[in-house]
Amino acid sequence: MPAIPDPTPSARQGTFELCGVSLRGPVLNGSGTFDAIAARRAFGDALLERFPFDAFVSKTITLEPRQGNAPPRLWETPAGMINSIGLPNKGLDGFLATDLPELAQLPVPLVVSVMGLGRDELARLVGAVGERDEVSMLELNVSCPNVETGLIMGADPAETALALERVRPETAKPLIVKLTPNATDPGAVAAAAESAGADAVSLVNTLKGMALHPETGEPWLGGRTGGLSGPAIRAIALEQVAAVASRVEIPVIGMGGIASGRHAADFMAAGASAVAVGTESFRDPAAGRRIATELAELSLPGRRGATPSRGV
Amino acid sequence: MREPRTLAPPERRVAVVSGIERLGAYHLVTAHDGSGPRDPRPGQFYMLAAEECWGGGGDERPYLPRAFSYARAHVEPDGVSLGFLLEAIGPGTERLAGLGPDDGLALVGPLGIGFRPPSDGARPVLVGGGIGVAPLLCLQEELDDPTVLLGFRSAAHAQAAALFSGQPSVVTDDGSVGRQALVTELLAAELDADSAVAIFACGPPPMLEAVRALCADRGVPAQLALESGMACGFGACFGCVVPTTDGYVRLCLDGPVLDADRLETAMFAGAGH
Questions:
Q1: Is ipTM strictly over 0.90?
Q2: Residue A92's closest CA among A120, A118, A65, A116?
Q3: Within chain B, which residues score under 70 in pLDDT?
Q4: Overall pTM > 0.90
């Protein structure tokens, strides 16, 4: 892959700030919904010239390499899809050696998503990733069981607080906590994360879902269950974003089925400071850029409220 | 050798349907792509969706675009005319088959890695089954008079053979056109006569597995164009992985054409759905 010059400092200057990091706008990608390295193989350097997001969030990395779940991994639903991917990644060492140098060539700030099977592992990941200059922020994927307690870290406020307290001293960089919607009270988890030192929260992750083989009645997905995403979950995500935003002062990054600037504006009206695009990028790799443009047009002075959000 | 991959523009665009031709069980959708690359490589694919009314069909689907190898790409003065062969078997293919002239066909592509040319001295043999004949059509145009072996379920499906030039050998499951036989029986006879060949195959998983096993037994190189359910087509979703000797690979990124010797089987979980 040909090297391209680093973006000039002025290219990184933005008009929008998230956790003290300057961005050119408020539209990110959801972790695991866009592989910028793979996309560059398919689209070439045109991807960098017309990069779809204002910050890039990596796929979640774990300490050890993972090959991911057995196929099949996808199932289409009404207005959405279920995935059971299983966090394939090269592991921390492979990521730092192979992926990070390529991600550093992107024209936007980099957010690295990490997941640990326990607090010590998470702390090691945060420390190793946080010390890299190429990384602007970290996102903690806490939608996994803690092997020490068996509890899903992000489903429980106390578990989430303990995780944050453990990793907070490892880096001065902003820590975003990715909340799972499969929690009894995401607002309580968000408040616990804020109290323990989180700089932002992002939500929603996928909702647990399942599909059956049409002939055998057995689970279709190799991982048996998966995560539902797309417009099918937008109303649920919007409610959770509003509920969380009412409980915390730190920025909320809202996502879940956003497919247009109007949807993004709805999430921001519900209290999100920034938004992320996920499944819609599968349908159009430039969806993030389109949504950012539509959002900017909606936000122009004098335009607020000028167009009804939907017909009847 | 440079991999046979023409890069796609990094956004979805809209091509304009110029014709829908009914070929027995299949539809050939032709669309004018005014802004995409004019030189896709045989075996590459596009993610397709109807510009309008994509959704609300059976089971309130489709939602995701559908991956199709292109069957034809003919350069025109102001773009390229792309042909896609499809069989209406679900909500996505039914909607695409229902497109009419001047309708918008949203697409991303060309994507993936296509067929590599045969090595010097190897006679190319194209082996297609059913809807899998699609990428062999454009491949035939690029090769020097390859042998073409085709298998279909029935006479209605075998009408797709008329898209090939020359005289392809055709067999059917029910004997309604040609002999009642599997296309892999034709391939076995071909290999018995001359094994200095290179195989290019696309078809249903059982056919590809038979081709793979046959070629592995005889040490004949084969390239297989595989299919796997995919959401995006450009490596984002990690959904289309297939097991290879190097572990899982994303078929959209490292395929859809894979060397047969990278596979232990072409019958992986989810194949054919």
A1: yes
A2: A65
A3: 1, 269-273
A4: yes
